[in-house]
Amino acid sequence: MNGNAVYEPPAIPTSWRVALPHTTAAVPVARALVRTALAEREHSADCDTAELLTAELVANAVEHTSGATPIELVLRLLPTGFQVEVHDEDPEPPRDLTKPNLDLPDPWQEHGRGLLLIRMLSSSCGHRPTESGKAVWFRLPGQRSPV
């Protein structure tokens, strides 16, 4: 053997891409994937907020798109935070995601708060066209470690 042997551990994934069923069963699965990704990598993004906002994106994709095509969940651990994307086959952008509706939702209504939560709790959010429809995304910043 020539030279020193160097052990290089396998690369730790910093992004995941998962197909989810186009049903409400996808919501708890998506939440669990986010929780697991953040915990396994000891990432500093707020896990509770990440789960909540992911659930909203997935629920919106299930409710507002049709078809049997799976929804795609993309998770990215970034040096400055965490990004979640949900891909669906509908090219129509979500209403009121980046342009806020000035009317607050009725506190008694059951729907209409998901995009408001995403706008208010994320550091940034948006949508972009994809070859098969669109991707709706949000980012959360990393949190400071307690001293």
Automatic annotation (TrEMBL):
GO molecular function: ATP binding
InterPro entries: Anti-sigma-factor_SerPK (IPR050267), HATPase_C_sf (IPR036890), HATPase_dom (IPR003594)
Keyword Lipid metabolism: no
Signal sequence, renumbered to the chain: none
Gene3D superfamilies: Histidine kinase-like ATPase, C-terminal domain
Domain Histidine kinase/HSP90-like ATPase stretches: 21-139
Keywords: ATP-binding, Kinase, Nucleotide-binding, Serine/threonine-protein kinase, Transferase
Name assigned to this protein: ATP-binding protein
Species for this entry: Streptomyces thermocarboxydus
